[in-house]
Amino acid sequence: MIVCCHTEILKPWSDDELQQRLEFIPDRIRQQLLLKKNHLDVQLSVAGNLLILALLKHFGIGLTLVEIVYNDYQRPYFNGGFDFNISHSGNRVIGCATLNGKVGVDIEVMKPVDLDYDDYFTANEQQKIRAAKDPGTEFFKYWTRKEAVLKALGTGVHTPLPDIDVSADELCYNSETYYLTPIDIAAGYHGCIAHTVKQEISVNQLSV
């Protein structure tokens, strides 16, 4: 099963509220989070780490945030069979995890966009976006699908976006199949989970 937890930052945290949450986060990670200049970015990053802890607890995994390591493209992971991924946009953050295969997630606040995006999408994707009744919404559908796959791959922007066509609900890349599942966390948001093993997906909202 893929378990996803998401949360919403409703207001700025006071210094005391922030410190209470930081107590659960190792000093090495805490110092990195506090380097962020925007207070909301700090809150979202702290919340993301707390969601990882919640997912570890859900699966009964005896790991800590100190044990997070990074691949050559700076994708965080744990050694072992537990895979996770985090995304945030606007004032919301989501974390997804599984014990089976790889998972990537992306959420985006939908907003007006410049639809000159030939450098980001395949010709097939561009055609489908432009032909849609609402090209703006369709843009975010394909953007989150593509980002989720790149995050599951673990290469991020190092894989050119036009190399991956996400117009179908599954795709094969580097001999690996990725399944694409849309997620709905709130009005005004678009989201997608990319996963390498077909399985049930549970999405829950938490307070952190």
In short:
The protein contains five helices and ten strands; from the N terminus they run E-H-H-H-E-E-E-E-E-H-H-E-E-E-E. It has 208 residues and is of the alpha+beta class. The longest helix has 21 residues, at 39-59.
Reconstruct the topology from this structure.
Elements (H helix, E strand, L loop, with lengths): L1 E7 L6 H8 L4 H7 L5 H21 L9 E2 L5 E2 L5 E7 L2 E7 L4 E7 L13 H9 L3 H19 L16 E4 L2 E8 L5 E7 L5 E5 L3
Parallel strand pairs: 1-10
Antiparallel strand pairs: 1-5, 2-3, 4-5, 6-9, 7-8, 8-9
Helix pairs in contact: 4-5
How would you describe the overall organization of this protein?
This protein has 208 residues and is α+β, with helices and mostly antiparallel strands. It has a single domain, classed as Alpha-Beta Complex (Ribosomal Protein L22, Chain A). It is 31% helix and 27% strand. It is built from five helices and ten strands. The protein has helices spanning 15-22, 27-33, 39-59, 123-131, 135-153, and strands at 2-8, 69-70, 76-77, 83-89, 92-98, 103-109, 170-173, 176-183, 189-195, 201-205. The strands form three sheets. Strands 4-5-1-10 form a four-stranded mixed beta sheet, with helices on one face. A four-stranded antiparallel beta sheet has the order 6-9-8-7. Strands 2-3 form a two-stranded antiparallel ribbon. Strand 7 (170-173) and strand 8 form a beta hairpin. Helix 4 packs antiparallel against helix 5 (135-153). The mean pLDDT is 93.
